[in-house]
């Protein structure tokens, strides 16, 4: 028998997570981009091989998209945008997070909540990247070529630029009406 538990984070709860994110960002400043990405990948693997709940597994899957945004050469994020994603991923490099990962059933809960919060802040970035991946895969399929080999084609570059511009436009429009953000 399963049990569903729902909860709502208040503005002060979100402010607390933002403070935690700021402290983690300070502690992980000396880590390289590669180390931060590797640590996020390790967490992804740990969760997938654990007995974590479906909620945690589904939330953590957004990490894979964020890692792809950084590592996908065809996507080619501008440094400012890449830095936002790296900051989001830095939380997952902190061994002493809110709930130690070794605690059964609850250990990854704080990680799942943080993924949901940063995914909310990166919503337009993530949507644009997913659209790009779908577009590239469709063109790859249509042309009968490997998607990664299409990474620098003129048409793909133009689509990437369009999606980057849309992502920033939507983020800026949303940022003006938002009271709390992790960034």
Number of domains: 1
**Unreliable spans:** none
Estimate the strand proportion: under 5%
Instruction: List the secondary-structure elements in sequence, H or E.
Output: HHHHHHH
Task: Outline the biggest β-sheet.
Answer: none
Q: Radius of gyration, Cα only, in angstroms?
A: 17 Å
Number of helices in the DSSP assignment: 7
What is the CA-CA span between the terminal residues?
A: 39 Å
Which structural class do the helices and strands define? mainly alpha
Q: Shape, please?
A: globular
Please state the average pLDDT score: 84
Number of strands: 0
Helix content: 55-70%
Textual characterization of the structure:
With 183 residues, this protein is mainly α. The protein has one domain (11-175). It contains seven helices and no strands. The protein has helices at 11-27, 33-48, 54-71, 79-90, 109-121, 123-143, 154-175. The model has no long low-confidence stretch (mean pLDDT 84).
């Amino acid at each position: 028998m399963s049990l569903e538990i729902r909860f709502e984070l208040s503005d002060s709860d979100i402010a607390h997570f933002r403070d935690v994110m700021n402290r983690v960002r300070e502690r992980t400043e000396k880590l390289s981009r590669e180390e931060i990405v590797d640590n996020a990948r390790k967490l992804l693997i740990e969760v997938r091989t654990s007995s974590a709940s479906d909620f945690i597994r589904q939330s953590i899957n957004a990490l894979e998209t964020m890692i792809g945004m950084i590592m996908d050469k065809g996507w080619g994020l501008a440094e400012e945008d890449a830095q936002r994603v790296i900051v989001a991923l830095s939380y997952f490099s902190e061994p002493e997070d809110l709930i130690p990962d070794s605690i059964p059933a609850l250990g990854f809960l704080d990680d799942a909540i943080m993924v949901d919060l940063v995914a909310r802040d990166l919503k337009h970035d993530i949507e644009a990247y997913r659209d790009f991946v779908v577009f590239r895969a469709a063109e790859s399929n249509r042309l009968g070529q490997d998607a990664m080999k299409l990474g620098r084609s003129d048409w793909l570059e133009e689509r990437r630029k369009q999606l980057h511009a849309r992502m920033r436009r939507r983020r800026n429009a949303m940022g003006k009406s938002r009271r709390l953000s992790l960034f």
